[in-house]
Amino acid sequence: MIAIALLLFSFTNAFACKISGYESGTCSYRYLPTTYKNSTVKERQARKLALAQWKNGTKGGPCEDGEGEHCMSFCGKYIANYYPPCVPNVESIEADRNFPDGRWKSFNVKTKDRWIEQETIRIIEERIAIETNKTARKLGIDEFGNKGKTKRRFHKNRACQEAYRKYMCWINFPRCDEDEESLPMCQSVCLNFFRTCGYEEDLWMCDDLIDNQVSSEPHERDPSYDFVGAPFKKNEYGRRKKPLEVCTPSIKGSASNFQISKLVTSLGFALSIILIIA
Ligand SMILES: *[C@@H]1O[C@H](CO)[C@@H](O)[C@H](O)[C@H]1NC(C)=O
Ligand SMILES: *[C@@H]1O[C@H](CO)[C@@H](O)[C@H](O)[C@H]1NC(C)=O
Ligand SMILES: *[C@@H]1O[C@H](CO)[C@@H](O)[C@H](O)[C@H]1NC(C)=O
């Protein structure tokens, strides 16, 4: 966690977009189909076009059969024609005292996408191994060694796994707004993850809102208690419940109607599954 804090402070310029809140990137429009925001084109068709482009490149670009450095074959499907994402700058960041070799040199869209894919798969598999631990079950203990059973959240729960994949992709390729700045994670994405994965409501950690922080400064924040993606932005809607572009991803159908009641303070459970990404 110390490394994260250092990174957070080393990128305080407000220009351009940022990935996971700290890694400077660049807004990419190259894979949005020409039908982007054209309301006469059916959603399904636009989506299909976009998917092919994320997978297969476009306009003679270097993404070919998923192998070019601009291919986003894992996360592309969650971004589709929905928004222009913030992607890594291929240029390296200059070396400094903390990073004598510089940073992110090799992180192009493809390597980042692959990394997210591998991490996501690994973490899901790890969670399933913990949830289906026969030894622990026989001993009658849960993952923390307490009496009981480890709750199965990811095991045989495709919706939970999918919610987690989306979380990972959206946090790592956030939405760019019209000023080419990245937008914070929508609260609905966080709520959706906790709900879909069957976390009890008092364990949800989606209450840390940007909007709250403005009004309650100075706000003592212990970064080790933050859920990755926090502080979140509350979703906003226009006419006919159309999501306004205020957060990542701001797409129709990604919202959750659930209310959150309590501010969560306990961290006594394995949230490392997501914290690890920071
Ligand atoms: C929107 O799409 C339609 C049908 O493909 C096309 O005729 C029209 O020119 C497009 N409008 C814009 C503003 O691109
Ligand atoms: C990707 O491109 C290759 C060769 O251009 C083509 O054969 C393949 O069908 C394309 N795949 C998709 C998903 O568009
Ligand atoms: C399974 O549970 C046992 C007993 O609590 C523990 O020693 C072991 O590390 C666990 N394995 C996994 C994969 O979590």
From TrEMBL:
Signal peptide residues on this chain, from the entry's feature table: 1-16
InterPro entries for this protein: Frizzled_dom_sf (IPR036790)
Superkingdom classification of source: Eukaryota
UniProt-recorded name of the protein: FZ domain-containing protein
Gene3D superfamilies in UniProt: Frizzled cysteine-rich domain (1.10.2000.10)
Keyword set, alphabetical order: Signal
